[in-house]
Amino acid sequence: MLTKSRKLLVLIGIIVAIGVVLRLVAASVGYNYDFESYKIVADIVLAGGNVYSETARYNYGPVWFIILGTIAGIANLTVDPELAFRVGVVLLLTFSDLVISFILYKRYGLFAGIFFFLNPISIIITGFHSQFDNLAIAVGMVAVLIYSQASDSNNRRLMVAALVLLGVSIMVKHVLVFFPIWLFIREKTFVRKGASLAIPLLVFFAGFVPFLSAFESIRENVFLYDSARNAPILRSVMPPIISSVLDPKAFMAIGLILSGLLTRKKALFEQLLWYLLLVVIFSMSILHHYLVIPMAFIAVYPNIFWIIYILISGFIFTLDKLGMGIEQMIAIAPQQFLFIYSTNRIYDIPMLFLFLGLCTHLIFSTQGKLVQEYQARAFRSFRQKIGI
Fold this sequence. Notes:
With about 400 residues, the chain is mostly helical. Helix content is about 70%, strand content about 0%.
């Protein structure tokens, strides 16, 4: 007879197994331009070259190409290096998803952890696209948890260590690059304000020092890199009085600064979740993998509009260009969802539902508490029925 704790472990094990298998199934469909770039980058690393000077297909700090080179080096020891490299990348990113899921589970309950790990956006972005936004987010979440604990105990060394780790997160990928500004707004003393802004950004920039022989390439392909510039919320949701006056960069800057001011009194980890949602809402560029960034917030505070957002996004991920290219899905897709007809405007509809979900969350100010209470009751009932 299994004890309740063992039954819970079995349930979690089944969920983890399902999530891992689904990601590997998504990976088996194929890969896109980004993964081809990973292979190019890994080959450069293994050959001892400077990634920034030898390809324009890499737009991030050095952490990710070091990881790619390491995985490729291990894969080359196997009988099928290409397959091993593919699986190795997916498993690493799956582990990142698990770290986020575990943190959400510990802080917000089992439902949030399961929701995050099994939602189709996370599964397809990790499995098929193998984009590494969630690796940066996982590192950032750990950094914020450490910083929050250190701040409460006034442990300055631990605070500095957490800020360094936040810089590493930004070096992995620039998802949290504006979060130090929120910390600057949040902190009350001059020293803490300066440290919270300067240390993560200095760590980020320091990562490029060994590669400064390719400074021009770094400047062009990393610091000045410009993505889709489609700004769905500004162009399609905001009234003309705003969209006609602000360009996408100004809209993003103003939106994030105001958001940092409005959320500064929230618990630090809660503020991080808000950042992950709002950085996408105000983003001047949206592509497939950006849609995974708000999923931690959505897993904690789901509503009907965000469920629709997930379903539409998952559908778009099966289609042409950046999607999985599944012919049966392409055949039934409206033209608004097909890249061949709408290019980067395909994100307008899912982003509209992301925005509507935000409006719903703000209107029902007690929603967060009510949702978590409902989740807790539902899972208590579920666990009682299965005896865990």
